[in-house]
């Protein structure tokens, strides 16, 4: 099974984002909607691989098979496209966790950790999780971008905390997200496969103990 539908584990788990049979994000039949969807998809890949500062409008448009003029027909600026991609990335993670909670009930945590640090890490950096991918750039971004990030992060926290429950649910949720996203960022940064495995294994133990 292709994992372009990043949080689909089996046929019993359905994610909010719609995908076509070939694993790509479903696009509108309307030409204008199709162009925007292609730009969003290309921007997601571009910002993940090159970062905000290292990816220009020309490259984003080219990745979508369009011109820079077409880009500005849909977005006022590169920053606006980045905000949309950031929101989509965190929403995808939130929906993925919610799907695991629905599938596994109170036992959702361990299967999610195994997937997130296992199969999910087999995808290329252009499909990496939005939380570790975009957080460094958001830290250097404008207030509008940080506001979008904070809003989506708060929504993500609420879903994770609902899966923990209890008086310390929020604290545990923050710890859970910090351990997983930090581990993924480090694991993707190293070249040595042994170090990568050690990071992911240690993070898995820590996340399951939260």
Essential attributes:
single chain, mainly alpha
3D structure, described in words:
By secondary structure, the protein is mostly helical. 67% of the residues lie in helices and 0% in strands. The radius of gyration is 17 Å and the shape is globular. It has a domain at 78-209: Tetracycline Repressor, domain 2 (Orthogonal Bundle), CATH 1.10.357.10. Helix 5 packs antiparallel against helix 9 and helix 8 (169-189) runs antiparallel to helix 9 (193-209). The protein contains nine helices and no strands.
Total count of strands: 0
Sum up the overall morphology in one term. globular
Q: Report the CATH topology name of the domain at 78-209.
A: Tetracycline Repressor, domain 2
Structural class designation: mainly alpha
CATH classification class of the domain at 78-209? Mainly Alpha
Provide a short characterization of the protein structure.
Helices cover 67% and strands 0% of the residues.
Q: Strands, helices and their partners?
A:
Elements: H1 31-50, H2 57-63, H3 68-74, H4 78-104, H5 109-117, H6 130-139, H7 143-164, H8 169-189, H9 193-209
Helix pairs in contact: 1-2, 1-4, 4-6, 4-7, 5-9, 7-8, 8-9
């Amino acid at each position: 099974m292709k994992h372009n539908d990043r949080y689909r584990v089996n046929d019993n788990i359905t994610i909010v984002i719609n995908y076509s049979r070939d694993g790509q994000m479903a696009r509108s039949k309307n030409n204008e909607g199709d162009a925007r969807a292609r730009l969003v998809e290309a921007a997601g890949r571009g910002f993940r691989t090159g970062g905000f500062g290292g990816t220009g409008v020309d490259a984003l448009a080219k990745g979508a098979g369009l011109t820079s003029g077409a880009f500005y027909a849909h977005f006022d600026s590169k920053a606006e496209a980045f905000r949309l991609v950031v929101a989509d990335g965190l929403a995808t993670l939130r929906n993925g966790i919610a799907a695991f909670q629905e599938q596994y009930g109170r036992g959702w945590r361990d299967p999610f950790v195994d997937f997130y640090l296992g199969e999910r890490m087999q995808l290329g950096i252009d499909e990496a999780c939005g939380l570790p991918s975009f957080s460094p750039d958001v830290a250097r971004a404008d207030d509008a971008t940080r506001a979008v990030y904070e809003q989506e992060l708060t929504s993500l926290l609420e879903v994770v905390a609902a899966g923990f429950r209890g008086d310390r649910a929020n604290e545990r949720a923050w710890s859970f997200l910090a351990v997983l996203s930090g581990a993924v960022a480090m694991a993707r940064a190293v070249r040595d496969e042994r170090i990568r495995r050690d990071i992911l294994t240690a993070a898995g133990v820590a996340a399951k103990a939260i």
